[in-house]
Design goal:
There is one protein chain. This protein is about 10% helix and about 45% strand. It is built from 3 helices and 12 strands, in the order αβββββαβαββββββ. Strands 1-2-5-4-3-6 form a 6-stranded antiparallel beta barrel. It is elongated and about 60 Å long.
């Protein structure tokens, strides 16, 4: 029997089933990606509720945009009561679901856990989080209890090796 951690290892959270919509089992789905065209390509996924420690396989029958969320209909979920059971489940897809990112582009999941080095090859920590500021992303690099914020702009990012999860930066002047 596989553990949930093993099951989700190569998966990426892509959205959350939040509430019911209508009387025929439709649900509101908050999509995490900023690539809306991916939402309509959803077919099969794993939905996991960490609080309940439950997972289910889900198949998307219909996906349509509505306001800042999507309305989805899942195969076999045809009543409000059936949909209620899936509220709060996070939907995970295989990493292979995403189109290959181009040079200079990245998906957040490609950078999470990446080792960060300065130009002298000194390990500065790992990418623990990424903050979206609107103008550029900011890497949250942690090493022990220390934390460093690195803007993802040409001035500070020397290279990103997504395959080997290695990022080389110029240490921001406020950190020197």
């Amino acid at each position: 029997m596989r553990r949930v951690e093993e099951l989700l290892k190569e998966k990426v959270p892509i959205g959350v089933l939040s509430n019911t919509h209508g009387l025929e089992g439709d649900m509101k789905f908050y999509f995490f990606s900023n690539v809306p065209s991916l939402a309509t390509k959803l077919t099969e996924a794993i939905a996991y509720n960490e609080q309940l420690k439950k997972f289910v396989m889900v198949r998307f029958e219909k996906v349509r945009k509505a306001h800042e969320y999507y309305i989805v209909h899942l195969v076999g979920v045809n009543t409000v009561a059936e949909a209620e059971k899936l509220k709060g489940f996070v939907v995970y897809v295989d990493k292979s679901f995403f189109p290959k990112s181009k040079d200079g582009e990245y998906y957040f999941f490609e950078l999470f856990g990446a080792e960060v080095y300065d130009e002298s090859n000194v390990n500065l920590g790992i990418v623990d989080d990424i903050i979206e500021t609107g103008s550029n992303d900011v890497l949250v690099v942690k090493k022990g209890k220390e934390e460093m914020l690195v803007p993802v702009i040409e001035r500070y990012i020397v290279s990103i090796d997504k395959e080997n999860k290695k990022i080389v930066i110029r240490v921001p002047e406020w950190m020197e």
